[in-house]
Give the backbone structure.
Amino acid sequence: MEAQKSVDLYIEFLRTRRSIRKYRNEPVPLDLILKVLDVARYAPSARNIQPWEFIVVTDSVVKNRLAEVYPWPQPIRGAPVGIVVICDSKSSPNTYQQDCANSINYIMLAAHAYGLGTVWQGILRDEERLQVQRILNIPSEKVPIAIIAVGWPAEKPEPRSRKPLEEIVYINSYGNRVK
Ligand SMILES: Cc1cc2nc3c(=O)[nH]c(=O)nc-3n(C[C@H](O)[C@H](O)[C@H](O)COP(=O)(O)O)c2cc1C
């Protein structure tokens, strides 16, 4: 009974993470960010290479420079903290993007557990990547793939819609729907 309750709570926890783009004007202690990043270390990675590194950005001048990399407004500008996720493309040339994406999910879920809001900002275009590398002095073989804006939530967004299970699940062969 107790075990079932914990399972239900954990599933509910996973389902209630939302991207948060508005934050209270309150600092987030560095210790708490380090606790979140401590959890990120447990994300799975191919051959357990763990090709991730993280830059915690609290300086508002640097945050604004990161925000200016994008042609449209991004939540990092109003967030007390940004975490830039950097991946070592040399040590894991085939899987670094996937490995680091796992660490990002761990960061967002650990932050959610501590009551913090996050949103994943992709560093998608070469131009964005080069600018972020320049701003943060990141060596060329280390690829920044995302900035995670972090702060105490100042909004409670409605859940975004999700595709129904029957649209995305097949059994044994593509197209063979479960329902
Ligand atoms: C690879 C990736 C890139 C994203 N980039 C941005 C972004 O640049 N700006 C932003 O506001 N949200 C960004 N998001 C957040 C998504 O918009 C969000 O996760 C999605 O709409 C689902 O909403 P939810 O996270 O609240 O469930 C990104 C998410 C992912 C996985």
Summary: Residues 18-19, 21, 74-75, 119-122, 160 surround flavin mononucleotide (CB under 6 Å). The radius of gyration is 18 Å. The chain has one domain: 2-154.
